[in-house]
Amino acid sequence: MTVYLLCFILLLVGLYGVITKRDLIKIILSIGIMGYAANLMLILFAYRSGAIYPILEKGVSPKIMVDPLPQALVLTSIVIELGITAMLVALAVRLFEKYKTFDITKIRRLSG
Amino acid sequence: MILPFFIIIPLLAAFLITLISGKKDDWAIILSIIAALSLLVLSVFSFVTIGGNTVVYNMSAWKIPYTICLVLDALSSFMLLIISAISLTSLMFSIKYIRHLSPSWKYYALFMFLVTGMNGVIVTGDLFNLYVFMEIALIAAYALVAYGSKAEEFEASFKYAVMGSISSTLILVGIGITYSTTSTLTLASIAKVLPERNPQVMYWVGGIFMAGFGLKAAVMPFHAWLPDAHSSAPAPISSMLSGVLIKTLGIYVLIRFFFNILGAPAIFKTIFLVLGSISIIVASFLAIGQWDLKRLLAYSSISQIGFILLAMGIATPLAIFGAVFHVLNHAIFKSLLFYNAGTVEMAIGTRDLREMGNLTKALPVTSSTSMIATLSVAGMPPFNGFFSKLIIIIAAVQAAHPGYALIAVIGSLLTLVYYMKVQRYGFRGEKLIEKPDVKVGLGMKASMIILAILCVVTSLLVIPGIREVTLDPVVSVITGKTDYIFNVLGR
Question: Which of B128, B139, B176 comes nearest A41 by C-beta?
């Protein structure tokens, strides 16, 4: 139970960063932390204590392996997060060119 | 099997566009128009033939617990039809508009990725696959919002990307929790297993998905990104985002998940009702205060999405019919209004209502089609918006929700108020503008006229005979709730 709680706290750390930080790069990093927390949670759901790697060999029963599907999901989701992060960084670079700052309180040409 | 082609055609078009187009955008235009046309033909064919049936396609011929399956039923083919119709008109509008803005084949490649993502979300029958396609659509949308390369556009795109990633992470957590309880990712199997294993988890997952997909649908407390993103994007992309993207990633997934998988528990219907009412009223008041035409239209989108959610919350067959009909109508008239706004921005170089004037002489097609769209969205009798709003109001009264019916009436009156402002200042104001600075292209005019005609034609769908063959199968998919399990898995 403790590991799930810690994982949830990691998610909240990321969310806290996105909400409170004023620097574009720090916001991007916080989004990364949120993504890691979600991935970690998927891995934790697949984990069983004492289980082995999920590769089918002779004489190894599938019953003592961890669940391989969430690991495949996590690989996919890591690739997606790479794409999102690259997109965000590219946007941050272009925003810096236009506004000459990374501070979101100064990037306010659009009104609510 | 036509099912995988809904994904293959736009994806192939996107890759071919990046491969063969050199500096010019001619090949990109030709390829994307061909792809959009063939998608339209396929989706019309599937919508006409599907009836009440369900087609399941198992990828790589694996059986269902192991495969990623694609599912086509009346609801999916209805959404596919909307996507392909709007994307075709949007591409026709894009040719001249994007050449004026900054011509590049990249626009068309990204556009095709957007269509791929949306079609994928609609046809997939697998929860994680839905997430992947959603991300394809979203990344393309972030890039397209920033396409004009102005400072405000990057700002809007960044805001959209941050909000989008937060909601995507929430959705991924929800997928994880679902998988940990049910040990499956196929939507139909989840629907079968979840109530047996642990009904409590249903509420956890439902709450997380309500926040995640509610953010994609821009329901009122989660709406902050929409006015910026939809008003900063190029006009054809605004129409794609407002017309179909928020409905595909938001409304469609919410319907599929809460009606077909969870079986519409009462608490979530109440949440739909409350969120819908808040969206209708607050977004209408915010829209009245806007002077930027596209911003006003974006707030109006939030308000109209509220109508759809309200009808989903009432959840009687008549209300669901209203919701489905309003999805179609909103896609048509909101796209048309964004085309009008884009034409005005291109022709006289502003979208501030105070600087616009009487455009009836300078842009006759634009101002007359904008009148049709305005009457349609405000709910005037011969046009489609009147019928869907009337059905939603009648359904609310019938289901003993007179308070929500009153909110819907007030909402449609407020809609009339802010669209009268558009007409009064924007298209029929005092300052007569003689000539536009830039000539409006033929494709732009054609796409506006097509949608204006559709505004009138789709109101025929309320006639009982036509309704039985078109929208009633869609409604019965939604009201059939967990019949989805049997349709996909077999009895």
Answer: B176
Q: Where are the alpha helices (DSSP H) in B146-222?
A: 151-182, 187-197, 199-217
Residue A104 domain-assigned (yes or no): no
Query: Per the domain annotation, does A76 fall within a domain?
Result: yes
By CA distance, what is A27's nearest residue in B? B162
Q: Which CATH number do you get for residue A31?
A: 1.10.287
C-alpha dihedral over B55, B60, B65, B66, to 10 degrees?
Answer: -160
Residues B262, B283: Cα–Cα separation, whole Å: 29
Separation in Å, CA of B184 to nearest CA in chain A: 10
DSSP B285-352: HHHHT--BHHHHHHHHHHHHHHHHHHHHHH-SHHHHHHHHHHHHHHHHHHHHHHHHHHHHHHHHS--B
Q: Residue A11: which domain range?
A: 2-99
CA distance A59 to chain B (A): 24
Residue A45 contacts B, CB cutoff 8 Å: yes
Q: What is chain B's pLDDT, residue by residue, as a tens digit (491 residues)?
A: 788 999 999 999 999 999 988 777 888 999 999 999 999 999 999 999 988 888 898 888 888 778 889 999 999 999 999 999 999 999 999 999 998 888 888 999 999 999 999 999 999 989 999 999 999 999 999 999 999 888 889 999 999 999 999 999 999 999 999 999 988 899 999 998 888 888 888 898 999 999 999 999 998 888 888 999 998 899 999 999 998 999 999 999 999 999 999 888 889 999 999 999 999 999 999 999 888 999 999 999 999 999 999 999 998 999 999 999 999 999 999 999 999 999 998 888 888 888 888 888 888 888 899 999 999 998 888 888 899 999 999 999 999 889 999 999 999 999 999 999 888 888 888 888 777 778 888 889 999 999 999 999 998 888 888 888 888 889 998 988 788 888 888 76
Domain boundaries, chain B: 5-489
Find the residue in B nearest to A26 (Cα). B162
Number of domains in chain A: 1
What is the pTM (predicted TM-score) of this model? Answer: 0.94
Residue A91 lies in a domain: yes
